[in-house]
Each structure stands twice: as C-alpha cells, then as structure tokens.
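Entry 12.
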Amino acid sequence: MRRTSPVALVGIAIAGGVIGWLLQVALAAGGTPSYQPPATLYSVLFILAFGLILLGRPVRRLVRGTANRPVDPFYAMRVLVLAKASSLAGALLVGVAVAFLGYAVSRTGSFAVPAFWPDLLTGVGALALCAAGLVVEWWCRIPPQDPADRPDRTLEQR
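Predicted 3D structure (tokens):
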C-alpha cells in the first residue's frame, strides 16, 4: 500500500470545501438556517484521533523492535487501513469545516457569529484526525530487512 499523498489530501480538502460551501448556499437559498456542527461531531473527531493513536502504538512498538509480544499481522493491516481512511476522511472534513467557517464569517463580517466556535472546533478535530491517520500510517511502515533486497539494485550489483 502506498502512503497517502499530500496532493490527494489537498484535493480532497478542496472538494470538501466546495461541497460544504454549496451545502450552506443551498440551505440559505431554501430559507433554512445554515448548518452548525453539533458538539458531538467535534468531540467524536478528537476521540477518534486519540483512539487511532492508541491502536497504532502496538504496531509502532513491533516495527521499532521494542514489543514484548508479537502483533497479529491482520491487526496491523486493519490499523493501517483505518489510518489511511482516517487521513482521507479528516482531510474531507477539514475542507467542509473551513467552508462552513468561511460562509458564517462572510455573511456577518465578524467572528462573533454563533457558528464560529463549533465550525472552528470541527476543523481542528478533523485536522487532528487527519494528522493522527498520517502518523499511524507512518508508524505502520516496514523498514527494509536486507540491503540486498532493495528494489533499486540491479542484478549486476548483487
């Protein structure tokens, strides 16, 4: 599995921003109030980021060679897939939260809107989830075992 590319994360965040902005515009055009994230959303984002770090620690210990007992390879694979999904979902939600925040501030012209803090905390929580996913994904990489097994060496060099 390849590591998550920064270009993909930025692209997903931009797509999330467009989706978030269009959602707020559609709600306003329909005469309904704009969406304000509930406290449970950003709370859960922080809890997921913390839980992902806790799930990745045994794999990190195994890769570093400081594990007391072996880790099931399927567990390590599941943690890696969860980390990749978390980084992508976090990037999407960062874009949505930034769009919500920008929409709320652009409509009033000040930061004293009721949606400012929930939007900001949702963006920070989503950024924490994205960062936790990238960190755990980095922890799950397997270092090369033998220098002769590197793919950049040709048969003549072996």
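Annotation: The two ends are 26 Å apart (CA to CA). The CA atoms of residues 102 and 141 lie 37 Å apart.
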